Amino acid sequence: MTDWFEVILLTFDATLRVSAPLVLAALAGLFSERAGVVDIGLEGKMLAGAFMAAAVASLTGSAWLGLVAAIGVSILLALLHGFACITHRGNQVVSGVAINILASGLTMVIGLYLFNQGGQTPSLINDARFLSIELPGVELLSGIPYLGTIYKELISGHNALVYVAFAMVPVTYWVIYKTRFGLRLRAVGENPNAVDTAGISVSRQRYLAVICCGVLCGVAGAYISTAHNAQFVRDMTAGQGFIALAALIFGKWRPVSVMMACLLFGFLDALAVRLQGVVLPVIGEVPVQLIEALPYILTVILLAGFIGRAVAPKASGIPYVKER
Amino acid sequence: MSQSNSEMPFWMDALLLPFLNIMTAFVVMVGIFLVIGVDPVEAGEILLFGAFGYGEGIGYTLYYMTNFVFTGLAVAVAFHAGLFNIGGEGQAYLGGLGAGLVCLLLAEWLPGLLVIPIAILGAALFGAAWAYIPAYLQAYRGSHIVITTIMFNFLAASLMVYLMVNVLNDPSKMSPESVTFPDSVWLPQMHELFAMFGVEIESSPLNVSIFLALLASVFVWIFIWYTRWGYQLRTTGSNASAAIYAGIKPPRVIVLSMCISGALAGMVGVNEILGVNHRLMLDFHVGYGFAGIAVALMGRNHPIGIILAALLFGVLSQGGQELAFEMSNITRDIVVVMQGLVILFCGALEFMYRPWLMKLYLASKGENNAQEVTS
Amino acid sequence: MHSDIAIELTDVSKRFGAVRANDKVNLCVESGTIHGIVGENGAGKSTLMSILYGFYQYDTGHIEVFGKAQYFNNSREALAAGVGMVHQHFMLVEPFTVLENVMLGNEGGKLLKEGRIAAETELKRLANEYGLAVDLHARVSSLSVGLQQRVEILKALYRGAKILILDEPTGVLTPQETAELFRILESLKAQGVTILLITHKLQEIMAITDNVSVMRAGTMVAHRKTSETSKEDIAELMVGRKVLLQVDKIDANVGEALIKVDNLTIKDAQGVERVKQVSFEVKAGEVVGIAGVSGNGQSELLEALSGITKVNSGSMIINGHEVSRKKPASPERMRIRGLAHVPEDRHHMGMVTSFSASESSILGYHNDKEYNGRFIMSRSKVRDYCRKLMDAFDVRPRDPDLKSANFSGGNQQKLILAREMERNPDILLVGQPTRGVDIGAIEFIHRRIIEMRDAGKAILLVSVELEEIISVSDRVLVMCDGVITGEVPAAEATERELGLLMTSSDAQKEVVA
C-alpha cells in the first residue's frame, strides 16, 4: 500500500518538476499569441536562456545573476522576432524557425569560445544553482499520515523557480484579464482595427507582448540549466518549447487550462520515464515513445476538431496593415 | 491595389534584394567571428577552399546540396498552393524509413536494379503519406497546417526512435541502427560511376541522387508552370476565390500539393539511406527540412533559384565542416549559425530593405511614372 | 433654431495616388441636427468621413469643429474634439463583453477594476438618457447586429462624442432594428448630439434628416433642407444628368427561356437570406438587366447562377438543366452547359492579378484540349489563344506575357469578356462590366454585349450603373434587399423611377410609414 503511495507521489513530484518549464514557456507563448504574434521560437528563446543562465552562473557563481542574464538574452531574441514580424511584417513562422536555429548554433559556438568544453558549460556548484527549498511546517505536519508526506514530498522541497512557474499562472491570469494592459493585449490579438481606431498603437502593444514572452522564456531556460540540471549541454531544451506550444493550443490560449495541459504533458513525460523497460501485466512493455508522442497526437486531434475546438486569437499570424 | 502599388523591376526583386539580405547575414557572421576571436578572412578562405578547393570537398558540397534541393522544392511546391509546409523534417525522416523498409524487405529477394526504384518510390510514398494527414486536416477540418506539420515532425521522430530501438535494430550492434543493406541496393556513388568510364575522381558521399534532385527540379518546373494541375495549384495559392470561380476545388489542390511536397522531402531519405548510409539509422535528416524553407524563400520558389540557394547552403555546410576541422576554436555548429542567419535575413527579414529600395527606385523613375504605377 | 455650427469643411481634398477621392469638398453641419450625406458607391462619402474622424489626413483644405480649426492625426485626436464614428464594419472585439469593448482605450486606470464601476455608471446613465439599453456583460459575439451597432454608438458617446458619424448604418439591419436605430438617433438629437448619416437610401434621408448633402464622384454637388426637397430631386442629383451613351440596337428577337429561376432563396455563410424567393426568366436573344444598389443580393444571385454557391431552396433551370438544393451545380458543370460568367469583381474573382495575361485568359477553361496535351500545357498555344482573344477584343497592350495586374482596368475587363464570350456560350452572366473602365472601353463592351444578344444568346446583366442598365438591357428587374421590387421595360425606364424602386423594398416602406 505505502509502496504504491510512494510511487504515485514520486511520479507526481516528477510531474511538477517537468511541468514547471512547460508552464513558463506556454505562458510566454500565451502573451505573444494572445497579442496576435505567433511564436514557434519559444524553443530557441528557452535554449538561449538556458545557456546564458548557466554561463553567467558559472562565471559569477550566482544563480540569480544567471537568471537575469537568461531573461536578458531571451528578451533580445523576442525583440528580434518583433522587429521581423511587427516592424517589417515578415513571416512569423520563418522568424520563429530562424530564432530556433540561431539559438541552437550560437549557444554552442559561444559556449565553446567561453569555456572550451565542446560547447558545454562547466558543471555548476550548488551556490550557482537554484536548490530545493524546504517550506515551513514540514516538521510540524510530518506526523500526519499521508498528508504530511504529501506536503513534504510534493508541495515542499522544490526549487524557487518551480514556485515561480506555478505562481505565474494566477499572475498571468490577472494581467491578461484584470488589467488595462491585458485588455489591450487581447484586443490587439483579436481585432487590431478596433484597437487602432481607439487610438492605441498596435505595434507598441505587440512589442510589449513579445517582451513579456521573452521574460518568461528566459526564466524557463534558466530553470532548465540552473535548477533542473547543473550545466548547459547541447540542445538541452529538447523540444520542450514545442511541447509548450502544443500545451498552449491544447489549453486553448487560457492560462489555467494551459497549466492543466502542461501538467498533463508533464505527467505523461514522468510516466514515460517511470515505465521505461517496465513490463506491465496484460499490456506488456509500453512503448515509451508512444507516451512521449501523446502530447503531439492529442494536440493534432484537438486541432482537427474531434475533441472540442481550439480557436486561435483571430488576428494571430497576420501582420497589421492599416486598411485603405 | 496594394500589391501593384509596390511593384519593383524583376532584377531588383529577384536578385538585388536577396543579395543585400545575404550580405547582411555575412556581415553579422563576420561580427560573430570577430567576437569569438577568429580571423574572418582566414575563415572565409578555409570555408571556400573546403567547399571548392579539392575533389572531395566539391563532392561533399554537392552531396549536401542534393538534400537542400529536395527540401527546398518541397517547400516551394506547397508554397505555390498557398501552404506553409514546415514538416519537411518529418517527411524527410519518413522518406528514409520508406526507402529503408523496402531495402530491408526486398533486397534479399530481388535484384538491386528492381529494388532501387521501388525503394525510391517507397521514400516518396512515405514522405507523401506523412504530409497527407496534415493536408487532409487543413483541407477538410480546418486545422492549421503550420501547427500540424510541426507536430508531425515530432511524431516522426518518436516513431523512428521506437522503430530503431525496438523493431528494426540490428541486434548485433549497440547503436540503434538496422543491418547494412546488401550492396546490390546501394546507389552508385559518383566516384564509382566515373571510374566506370575510366575517370578517376576523389571519393565522397556524392551519389546519383544528385541526378534525381536535378530531375525533381525539372519535374517541379514543368509541373508548376507547364501542366493544368500546376495551373490549378498556382491559381489556388494566388487567389482562392478565382480558383473557385474557375471550378477548381481548393481542398483537392491542397491535398495534392502537400503530397507532392512530402514526396519531394522524402527524397532526402534516398540520398541519405540508399546513397550514403546504406542502413536505417536515427537523425540522418536533421536540419534539412527547416533549411528548405530558407532555400525556397531565397530561390523565390523557382527551381533554378532553389538549386542556387541549395548550392549556397551546401557550400556553407561543407565549408563550415572544414572550418570546424581546421580551427580548434570552431565546431560544426558554426554551420548551424550560418544557416540560422541566412534564414533570418533572407526569410523573416526578407523585406527589410524593400521600402528603402522602393524609395530609391521611385526616386530614380521620377514622380510622373510613380503615379502611373499607383493608378 | 440651431444657429451654431458643429462642423465646417472648406475645400477639403484627398487623393490616393492618382485617384481624387475628395475634391474641394465643402460642408456645413449645424449643431444638434441630423445631416444626411448621400451618394452612389464610390462617390467619396466614406473617405470624407474617415478624414473627419482622423483615420485619414486631408491633403489640402480646412476643417473647423465647433468653431475651432482642426487637423486630426489619428482618431484619438478626433475623439478628443468630440467626433465619434460608428463604422460600417463594426470595430468591436467579438469575444469581449460590451463593457470591455466600451472601455478599450478609455480604461480609466491601470487596473480594469478602477475604471469599471465608473464606466458602468456612466454607461447606465447614457443608456437611460438615450434609450440605448444593452446588457453590459454580454459577449459582443452573442449580440445581434442591431445590438452590436448600439454598442458602437455607446462607445462613441462614452468617449465624449458630441458629433456622431454613422457610415451606412442600416445596411446590415432588419427593418425593426432600423426603426429602433432611428428612434435612438432622434433621442440623441433631442439631447443635442449632432449626427452625420451616410447612406445611399433615400427613404432614410427623407425619414430622419434635417439637411442633406449630395456627393458625386468625389465632389459635393448640392446641399438641401430635407423639408424643401424630394426623393426624386435627390435621386437626380445623386446620379447626375450624364450624357447618355447611345447604344444602337435593333429590337430584340426573343426566343425560348434559357434561364428560369423559380422561388430561389440563397443564404450566406452566416445563414442570413440574401436572395429571397426570387423568380424570373431570361430568354434567348434578350438582355435582362438587374438594377440595384450593391449588396442587395445581386452578387449572391450571380454566384448561384454560375454554380459557385449552393441554392437553399427553389430551383433554376439553366439551358435545360435543373439546379436545386438536391441537384447542386458547380462552375465547371455550368460552363459545360453553355453558361459563361463575367464576375463582378475582376481582381477578386475574374483573374489572378499575379498571372500573365495569357494565364488569366484561360481561367476556368484551363482543362481545354486546345492547349493541353495529355500532361503538358502548351504555353505557346495558350499564348496564341490569348493573342486571338486580344485581337478580337482589342486588348492593349497586345502582350500575352504582361502581368495581368499591369493592364488598365478597361483592358483587364476586355480580356475577361473575351475569355467568356469567345467560346460562344448560350448564356452570359455579366456583373458590373464597366466598373472602373474608361469611356472608350465602355462603348466597346456595350456593343459586344448587344452583338451577343443579336446572335440569340440569353444575357443577364447586373450593374449599379443605371444608365448602363437602361441603355443595354431590354427588360430591367430591380432588386432591393434580396427581393425583386419591380420590372420595367428598358425603353420606358427612367433613372428616377428605377432609383425609387431600388430604395423601396416593402421592408423599408414599413419603416418609413
From TrEMBL, chain A:
One of its GO terms (molecular function) is transmembrane transporter activity. It is a multi-pass membrane protein. One of its GO terms (cellular component) is plasma membrane. CDD domains: TM_PBP1_transp_TpRbsC_like. The keyword Nucleus does not apply. InterPro entries: ABC_transp_permease. Keywords: Cell membrane, Membrane, Transmembrane, Transmembrane helix. Its main location: membrane. The chain crosses the membrane at residues 7-31, 51-81, 93-115, 160-177, 207-226, 232-249, 256-273, 293-312. It is found in: Cell inner membrane. Pfam families: BPD_transp_2. This is Sugar ABC transporter permease. The lineage of its organism: Bacteria, Pseudomonadati, Pseudomonadota, Gammaproteobacteria, Thiotrichales.
From TrEMBL, chain B:
The chain crosses the membrane at residues 12-38, 58-79, 91-107, 113-133, 145-165, 206-226, 253-274, 286-313, 334-353. Signal peptide: none annotated. One of its GO terms (cellular component) is plasma membrane. One of its GO terms (molecular function) is transmembrane transporter activity. It is found in: Cell inner membrane. The keyword Transmembrane helix applies. InterPro entries: ABC_transp_permease. Its main location: membrane. The keyword S-adenosyl-L-methionine does not apply. It comes from the Bacteria. Keywords: Cell membrane, Membrane, Transmembrane, Transmembrane helix. This is Sugar ABC transporter permease. It comes from Leucothrix arctica. The lineage of its organism: Bacteria, Pseudomonadati, Pseudomonadota, Gammaproteobacteria, Thiotrichales.
TrEMBL record, chain C:
It is a peripheral membrane protein. One of its GO terms (cellular component) is plasma membrane. It comes from the Bacteria. Residues 7-242, 259-506 form the ABC transporter domain. Keywords: ATP-binding, Cell membrane, Membrane, Nucleotide-binding, Repeat, Sugar transport, Translocase, Transport. InterPro entries: AAA+_ATPase, ABC_carbohydrate_import_ATPase, ABC_transporter-like_ATP-bd, ABC_transporter-like_CS, P-loop_NTPase. GO terms for molecular function: ATP binding; ATP hydrolysis activity. It is found in: Cell membrane. PANTHER family: CARBOHYDRATE TRANSPORT ATP-BINDING PROTEIN MG119-RELATED (PTHR43790), GUANOSINE IMPORT ATP-BINDING PROTEIN NUPO (PTHR43790:SF4). This is Heme ABC transporter ATP-binding protein. It comes from Leucothrix arctica.
